[in-house]
Amino acid sequence: MSSSMMGKKIGETCIVCEQQKETGIHLYTSFICEDCEKDMVLTDTNDPKYKYYIERLKMVTYKQNIS
Ligand SMILES: [Zn+2]
Fold first, then answer.
1. How many domains, in total, are found in the chain?
2. Highest taxon of the source (predicted)?
3. How many angstroms separate the alpha carbon of residue 28 from the centre of ligand 1?
4. Where in the chain does DSSP place strands (E)?
5. Mean pLDDT by 10 residues, the chain (67 residues)
């Protein structure tokens, strides 16, 4: 990861927040932005928000399975 954040690249669409971000991780063929990834890690598993994240991720893996 270097300092090329000056916006030549549009980035990728995060599957969680659905915003275009430049930094994040890839899960299967999908992209999770840095913010959501951090947030997910910090979210308690009992938090309803955590469930939301899991649902988003499930959708991704499901799509993988049927393709
Ligand atoms: Zn995101």
1. 1
2. Bacteria
3. 16
4. 12-13, 20-21, 24-27, 30-33
5. 58 92 89 94 94 87 64
